[in-house]
Amino acid sequence: MPNQDYVHGYDSHERERLVDQATTLTGLLHHDTSYPDGSTVLEAGCGVGAQTVTLAANSPGAHITAVDIAEASLVAARARVEASGITNVVFRQADLFDMPFAPESFDHVFVCFVLEHLCDPAMALSRLKTLLRPDGTITVIEGDHGSAFFHPENADARRAIQCLIDLQAAAGGDALIGRRLYPLLRETGYRDPRVSPRFVYADASRPETVEGFTRKTFTAMVEGVRGRALEAELVDKHTWDRGIEGLHRCAAEDGVFCYTFFKGVARR
Length: 268
Fold this sequence. Notes:
alpha/beta, Rossmann fold, 8-stranded mixed beta sheet, 8 strands, 23% strand
């Protein structure tokens, strides 16, 4: 199974965005995830380690193996974990569809913001299931760009978001996958799937969320595909610029931005 194109790219701005996102969303996404001392945990698709630091800090007695296909991302992840003083993580370079582990090697699997980039997320979940021990758990977190709504409403901002959705689809992914987590877990044979929405609401009374999510996470993510959107002729330059201006407008004193993540937990 070939690796899908990561639509956001691998430059320093994207690495910074991922860290800003993880920092802002730590409580929302991770407050109910921890693993027992001595348990073995696979983080599949760790990227630059933005989630790894929190995952490991919440389960200091667990043994975490973090894998990613991109060597540059692993270098950044190792550096981030080492700088945090975390010692319970080892890193491996590996393709999610061809993992170098024996069946039933792990008690738990954690997957965050990965399935959206794959052309066959069901196959990925099936492969990961084989690595779980009987009654082991999987935790999956994904966003859904179709869940974004905001004030003031802006048609050009909607168009810019749709460009990202379309580019991700063209690369083989699904930026709307959050709403599919429950059926995907059922389809791939996991038991007792439970999916909970994690709602982000940002207005001027929550300046940290406005800065960390509206500006530095979501708007920065859309801004990052500008070159691809224009090259693919999905939008003209002036419409794009007005759209990005509209997203930034949501971070003003009278602006509002909302978005929903989905977190699924199931057993083998």
